[in-house]
């Protein structure tokens, strides 16, 4: 058994946006990380809440980035949503699609009839991310739901990571309908629900999977819900301050700056790190306050501080006692 973190697992399930790529640009080291896993015969899967691409398109995009992927290894919230609707509705039922062509294609392939207007009397509305979603289709969806159509959202991620910073995600578009209708969707299919992860594990016949994600509220929360270990990488949406304030339902097993953490000892990524000093850093706790001193790897400091904040110290109770600590807390906006 390999002594590094990844060596303890028989399947690694990657989120995509913020972990492997940003929109359509690969994150440094992602291709090498996946290649190393494949070289040691560790199964790999990809689970994404982004409903704007079909599994085959995602696999082609990844392969084009130098991250080899087969369509069967990709699980999307679009495919999962269409499968759920196909289970609940008679074949051929009209479904109003709010989102990209990929979601429409998934609905059609599932044996249902995609439509675009409330006047088509849809029995369900399925809503996923699409860069061209606008007022007209949201209006039709609102009218259809008011008329009694079931409302299914592929996911509720408020933002999408990008090289320019966070962009509005499907959750922001769902919020438009939630405000107009004064109600929540009848069903949210993707993460933080556990289905994408449990399906990936089942397909790979994995007994001990690891989930790798960049979002606490979807990737990590979904892994916790599925009873799986997880690694948070700091290359996407959730940052150090988010991790320090994380609710118990959103706390990862490990944290690393990027995917290279998969190939270091698990003990170097385990969170929280319950010690007074490590890696050049020292923490001193006094009741509801904690002081960080020294210098070193920022992730080590983060793991040390999680031990304090996860046991009752508020973010406002973190202070610095060295120049490096002050610089680090400032970068984390603490």
From TrEMBL:
Gene3D superfamilies: HAD superfamily/HAD-like (3.40.50.1000)
InterPro entries linked to this entry: GNAT-like, HAD-like_sf, HAD-SF_hydro_IIA, HAD_sf
Keyword Cytoplasm recorded: no
SUPFAM superfamilies to which the protein is assigned, alphabetical: HAD-like (SSF56784)
This protein's UniProt keywords: Hydrolase
Domain spans labelled GCN5-related N-acetyltransferase-like: 279-334
Any one GO MF annotation of this record: hydrolase activity
Database matches in PANTHER family: 4-NITROPHENYLPHOSPHATASE-RELATED, D-GLYCEROL 3-PHOSPHATE PHOSPHATASE
Protein's name in the database: HAD-IIA family hydrolase
Organism of provenance: Paractinoplanes hotanensis
């Amino acid at each position: 058994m390999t002594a590094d973190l990844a060596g303890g697992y028989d399947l690694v399930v990657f989120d995509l946006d913020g972990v492997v790529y940003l929109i359509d640009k690969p994150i440094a080291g992602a291709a090498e990380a996946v290649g190393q896993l494949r070289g040691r015969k560790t199964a790999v899967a990809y689970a994404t809440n982004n409903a704007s691409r079909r599994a085959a398109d995602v696999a082609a995009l990844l392969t084009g980035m130098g991250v080899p992927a087969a369509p069967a290894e990709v699980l999307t919230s679009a495919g999962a949503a269409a499968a759920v609707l196909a289970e609940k509705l008679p074949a051929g039922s009209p479904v109003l699609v709010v989102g990209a062509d990929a979601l429409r294609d998934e609905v059609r392939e599932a044996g249902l009839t995609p439509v675009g207007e409330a006047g088509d009397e849809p029995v369900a509305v399925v809503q996923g991310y699409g860069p061209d979603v606008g007022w007209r289709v949201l209006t039709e969806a609102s009218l259809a739901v008011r008329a009694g159509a079931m409302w299914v959202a592929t996911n509720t991620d408020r933002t999408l990571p990008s090289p320019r910073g966070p962009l509005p995600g499907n959750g922001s578009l769902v919020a438009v309908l939630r405000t107009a209708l004064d109600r929540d969707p009848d069903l949210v299919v993707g993460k933080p629900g556990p289905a994408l992860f449990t399906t990936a594990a089942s397909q790979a016949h994995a007994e001990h999977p690891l989930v790798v994600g960049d979002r606490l509220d979807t990737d990590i929360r979904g892994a916790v819900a599925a009873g799986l270990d997880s690694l948070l990488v700091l290359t996407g949406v959730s940052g150090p301050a988010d991790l320090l304030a994380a609710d118990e339902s959103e706390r990862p097993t490990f944290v690393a700056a990027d995917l290279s953490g998969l190939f270091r000892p698990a003990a170097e990524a385990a969170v929280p790190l319950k010690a007074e000093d490590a890696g050049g850093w020292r923490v001193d706790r006094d009741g509801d306050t904690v002081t960080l001193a020294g210098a070193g790897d920022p992730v080590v400091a983060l793991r040390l501080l999680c031990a304090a904040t996860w046991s009752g110290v508020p973010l406002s109770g973190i202070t610095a006692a060295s120049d490096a600590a002050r610089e680090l807390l400032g970068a984390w906006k603490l």
